[in-house]
Amino acid sequence: MASPRALLGATAATVVIMGGTTAGTVYVRAAHSDSRPVSSASAAPSASAAASTTREASVEPGVEPAAEPSVDLDAMLARAVAATGAEDGAEVSVAVLDLTSGRRAGYGDGAFDTASIVKVDILAALLLQAQDADRRLTAAERAHATAMIVSSDNAAASALWETIGRAEGLDAANERFGLAGTAGGEGMLWGLTQTTAADQLVLLQQVFGDDSELTEDSRSYLQGLMGRIAAGQDWGVSAVADGSAWALKNGWLPRSATGLWDINSIGRVTADGHDCLLAVLSDGNTTKERGVALVEAAAKAAVAVAVVRDESAAGSAATVD
User: Fold this and answer.
1) Phi, psi values for residue 235, rounded to 5°
2) What is the pLDDT of residue 316?
3) By mean pLDDT, which of 56-65, 110-119, 304-313 is the weakest?
4) What is the DSSP string of 215-278?
5) Can you tell me the distance from the alpha carbon of 198 to that of 240, in angstroms, rounded to the nearest whole number?
6) Are strands 274-285 and 261-271 parallel, antiparallel or unpaired?
7) Measured between alpha carbons, how far is 135 from 285 in angstroms, rounded to an integer?
8) In sequence order, what are the residues at sequence separation of 6 or more whose Cβ sits closer than 8 angstroms to the Cβ of residue 5?
């Protein structure tokens, strides 16, 4: 099996390191050669025109009814994302899984900088290594883990990045987790790890699902930290959740070469009683605020497509707020 780094070899990055704030990722420039869908570039119908009509066949007595046409959730999501009104040049990719119904959808398959969402992956790798060694996390590791996830502390992330063996350790864990399109950043540049929305959904299934390389104790520990995100950092996929029914990690990264922002959000949300795993990645945003607005709009679009509030309307496009 080819390594994730080989799979993403075409996503070369030119990097400049700048002093960063405690919460913001410190890596600020990466030039990519991959090609990705641009949400604002495609002329698509509005979300209200995304209905995939199902017709009841007229069946003669004794004749088997024809199978109902399947609903193309990916196409519905593409139309819904296009209707979010992303600014020119902004790119976004989304993956969603409704754990209640099993419905899933995805839009975009390009690679993006992780920024600080990689901190979930770093902690998952650390927990997996600790399991393999049949040991508990040390007090120092637990302190770093709390600071890294809850307040997005970069120094804590760097310490644990070293502990897991940097990119080599992350990639080895991700191979076991089933992440085929993620490659750890070079050297200490963990924020320039490359990933896809589909891979982040796989990672979330490792964190929140029962069929996981992580033990129940490891999963509960990571879930608990993701449910305690510091005020001011709790935007993103939480925008679609019922109240405080969410657990998440966000990432934000300004790129010095262009002045544009990478804005990402991953996590579990409960919407209309449905538990959903959701990953939204974006770049090319002119400001952090516009990037957050895009990510939240895409999250709402994804959950509206995946969650069927009225089972009789399963073939209809959901309304996007």
Assistant:
1) -85, -170
2) 41
3) 56-65
4) -HHHHHHHHHHHTSPPTTS--GGGGGSSTT-EEEEEEEEE-TTT--EEEEEEEEEEETTEEEEE
5) 19
6) antiparallel
7) 43
8) 167, 171, 183, 184
Backbone region of residue 96 per phi and psi (left: phi > 0; alpha: psi in -120 to 50; beta: other values): beta
Beta bridge partners of 248: 267
**What are 17's strand-pairing partners?**
27
Average pLDDT over residues 209-238: 98
Residue located via tokens 């895009």 = 294
User: Rounded distance, CA 265 to CA 299, Å?
Assistant: 9
Q: Which of 135, 141, 202, 146 is nearest to 174 (CA)?
A: 202
* pLDDT single digits (tens) 253-286: 998 889 999 999 999 999 999 999 999 999 999 9
User: Looking at residue 40, what DSSP letter applies?
Assistant: T
- What's the CA gap between 123 and 126, in Å, rounded? 5
Residue 204 host element (H or E) = helix 197-208
In this predicted structure, the answer to whether residue 315 has a pLDDT above a threshold of 50 is no
For residue 280, the one-letter residue type is: V
The pLDDT of residue 88 is above 90: yes
For residue 252, give the nearest of 10, 24, 31 by alpha carbon: 24
- What is the pLDDT confidence band of residue 157, given thresholds at 50, 70 and 90? very high
